[in-house]
Amino acid sequence: MTGPPLSWRVRWVVASAIFLANHINAAALSDEVNMASIDYSKVSIEEKPLYAPPLKEVAEVLSEGLRKTFEFVNVTVEDCPDLTREPFDLTTPGLSGDSKLVELGGPPYLTPQVRRDKVYDLAALLRHLGRDPALLAGAGAGPWPYLGVNCEGIINLSVRKGAVTQGTRVVSVAPPGAAKGQASYVQRRLPPGETRTALLGNYLLSEGRPGRVLKVVVEKRIGPSNFITAIREALKEWYGDRAVGLGGAFLLAAGKVKHHVMPDFSASPLCSDEDVDRWLHYFEMTAPIVHLGTLVTGDLGLDLRVQHFHGYSAHGDGGHYHYDTTPLQVRYEGYFALASSVIRVDRPSETHGIGRD
Length: 357
Ligand SMILES: *[C@@H]1O[C@H](CO)[C@@H](O)[C@H](O)[C@H]1NC(C)=O
Ligand SMILES: *[C@@H]1O[C@H](CO)[C@@H](O)[C@H](O)[C@H]1NC(C)=O
What we know:
Blueprint: H1 6-32, E1 45-49, H2 55-65, E2 70-79, E3 100-105, E4 119-121, H3 122-129, E5 134-141, H4 144-147, E6 152-160, E7 163-166, E8 169-174, E9 184-189, E10 196-206, E11 212-221, H5 227-239, E12 245-254, E13 256-261, H6 273-279, E14 281-286, E15 289-296, E16 307-312, E17 318-324, E18 331-338, E19 341-345
Parallel strand pairs: 3-19
Antiparallel strand pairs: 1-19, 2-11, 3-10, 4-10, 5-6, 5-10, 6-7, 6-8, 8-9, 11-18, 12-15, 12-18, 13-14, 13-17, 15-16, 16-17
Helix pairs in contact: 2-5
The structure holds 2-acetamido-2-deoxy-beta-D-glucopyranose (NAG) (2 copies).
GO cellular component, one term: nucleus
Organism: Pieris brassicae
Protein name: DUF1907 domain-containing protein
């Protein structure tokens, strides 16, 4: 027999099989639909101002308002620590510089039935908005065309002089298609050239510069609300109809949290919150976990998601934050920038209230 030794051929066959298994799913799907991402000149982009009170006042409002929910509360205005360092590991040192919220798409592109055409290139969005240098950080669906299945995205992307740094993580159910209760999850980093996302997202947009930010440290939860809901409710109570928005990062420094990870798209329509709940996979995850996202205290007639944070950890955890499951052990440490406006991109024309939690 001529040719390479048998073991080489076996290895080649195995390697090819692995390659195909990884890529065939995506290839099959991309035949079905036009995989071009959304052309931002052809979708609606609306911008509305938010009320931006002095940071010091917000710190006072939260110092008081968070006491209902946490036994220990310390809210101050600080120079942002270098967020490129552990545990935050962002792509820029700070959160400041022309800070705004961006909401892309929305839950109506996921339920009742998925809109596979809603694929967005985030680097193209920054170019379209004329933002450079820029940081986009927050929570949304990940780029299913990359994995071949639906996934969570922890968005952490920056651009400087046209060069993109992509630090976004995605988390998907593993193995894909596993039944609820029998599945695990896998977190991975997107490659530098993959700047797409899909369906929906809530991000802080800024220049990523160092600057003054809100630092919120709380421990030992004694109220029913989760960390972000407690902040949003405290702001809402004080500012009323003047809508305030902020975005940034918080660390779950101690304790455990309940996250969900979306499985692949449902074959049957998801018509209610109960349907969505049955479809999602829930997991308990362990500190330390860094979460990125946004909150806003009003809707501004833009059909906004009022809060949305996704988490990522160096030990492989990650997903959509719901609440902590160990109230007495919990410690949160957050850094947030106030946003001057909300940019609403490709707002669904037909909307509903499903899947907003
Ligand atoms: C509150 O936070 C500030 C800033 O991090 C710190 O200097 C101060 O010691 C903290 N206070 C308490 C009671 O922990
Ligand atoms: C953000 O991106 C940086 C640089 O690419 C990466 O090292 C870091 O792990 C990412 N952080 C998160 C929270 O995803």
